[in-house]
Predict the 3D structure of the following.
Amino acid sequence: MRFLFTLGLAFFISFTVQAQVQIGQTVINYNPKVAKAAKELAKQPARARAQKGAALPFFDDFAYASPFPDDALWMENLVFINNTLAYDPVSIGVATFDGLDGTGSPYGGGFGSSDTLTSIPLDLSGSNPKYLSYYVQPKGLGDAPGDRDTLLLEFKSSDGNWEKIKSYNTTFVDPLFPPDSITVFEYVQPIVIEDSKFLHDDFQFRFRNYSSRSGGDLWHIDYVRLEDTEITQNTADLAFTRLPSNILQDYSSIPWQHLQTEIENDNDFLLIESMDIEIANLSTNQIGIAGSSFLVNGIGDNVVLFKEQLLLNPNNAMQSNITSGRNNFTNPIIGEYATFFENEFRALENVQVKVDYSFEQDNAESALTQRNNQVSRTFDLGNYYAYDDNSAESTINVGTGGQVAVKFTNFKEDLLQAIRIQFPRIFGVDLSNSNITLKVWLDDLNTEPVFEAPFTNPLFVDEFVDTLQAFTTYVLKDNFTDELTPVLLPKGDFYIGWQQVTTCNNQFCVPVGFDRNTPAATETIFVNIDGNWNALSDLFINVDVPPSQMGALMIRPVVGSEPPNDSETVSTTSLDLPQLLNVFPNPTTGEVNIQLFDGNYQDYQIRVFNTLGQQVKTQTLSPELHLNEQTPGIYFLQFINTKTLAAGNYKLVLKR
């Protein structure tokens, strides 16, 4: 695994007072979205595939929501379909070769073949040549491929052998290609398939990468076409290239009751007044728009249509006839946008707002390209503030003694109940002994924190508990009594953050998710690595913040009259554990007794997880559980009824 110190040499040159305190980034090598989807997919019946090769044309631009490739087109679930990791994709959605398997975990085993994307069998029989084209990009907004990392294109011949057709190698060591740079997608000129050994009725092609097999080393593929007529880059297709713009001016989420209060006071500045639209015309000619729609639905106890209007202005020549290349438009939202927020769902605590963009184009080349003509995004307005978009493309950590804080502006006096953090999982790195102190400041970072939670250990409970986008929630408590100690937040600015308190070097410092798709939030991040607080942007000496280092930290304040579920206690799901069984002693020195009040032990399974979310033990439930071989710390016991699959979780402390 490589660790990228990509925040620039300025960090390591300009701070001499505490040279040991640095800012670093690590490669994320676990994908909770894929892990969750893999579990759900395992419960579904497999798709029946045709025995003969499919007819051409073959096309995929990966413009769909699933994290897995379309199983009508591809054989495996080993690449990650997403719209966050690539930079300026050809159309919305790309296939990312990320060095993680179909469960979102590293392959392991050292350098070698990792991700594979294999087409279904295709009928290329006959004597006429066929044509394959696609776009490719290394790195994007994620980790760069290393010196040895390679992306291959291979064809299957009539005798069943795979043959290399193309290979790609990119190094970011060259001074002309610095680590902070971002590459663009390269169009691969159509590959002519005319050798008779490939013109058969069971032809397949595949992309395959060689990497460290530990996660990272990213390659992205987009807009794959295989046709029996000659093709060029000039394609009569219009495509969205990014998701709908945010509905809020600065935040991705504001507590619903806070937002309503501001709107009722005629402070509509929190809501956007216009929508940003980006459409790519992949041809060299203008393409006309037949119609378009901007649609907003509110989702509470029911779905309410709030807004529907034209997305593109038919009276604007540039928007009714889209010119070649990438086009950006900003159109106003017509009418009373705030009325919906003021009048609908007034009594609810949580509301979702779903935004849809769509258009119809004149003279579409093929029905195959239609799914890139609509994009959708859902915003959760609940009990927290957030800048991020739920996706971590990287991480930020600080060395021993370093501090990081994120600035928020509160719009309604309320209680700060918890801090929610996304800790990306770094396989191969044990963070069980790496601790941070969570902190809250009011008004000014140069004041004393109004709350501190010393020696907080990162918890990775998403493996066995359905958490909010794999975030860990720490409820504010008294350090000695465990009594709830929410902080009264007045209207105005406040900060939440952390300090790295245990000794660490870069890869063993606690990482926090960094969303690179929200560059405006860079100005909310402050760091203290030399005894003084500075905006993150100020640490880049005499240069602007590189685009690859702009983004939002995935840390969220949770407010309201009631505390949320605490990840440290892990609430039960469907098994009522206090009524079902008793676990004692707790804390334990290794020997645990389990008393089942009703039923048979053999009807239950027990799984034991550490704070990294790793399963360390599984067995049929019995009156005794032996944990003597485990290291001291916090463990989570998951009890599962093997007949009903109902589950419940229990926190256990192991001491020596």
Observations:
- The mean pLDDT is 87.
- The longest strand covers residues 287-299.
- The first helix runs from residue 10 to 14.
- Residues 10-28+392-559 form a domain with the Jelly Rolls fold (CATH 2.60.120).
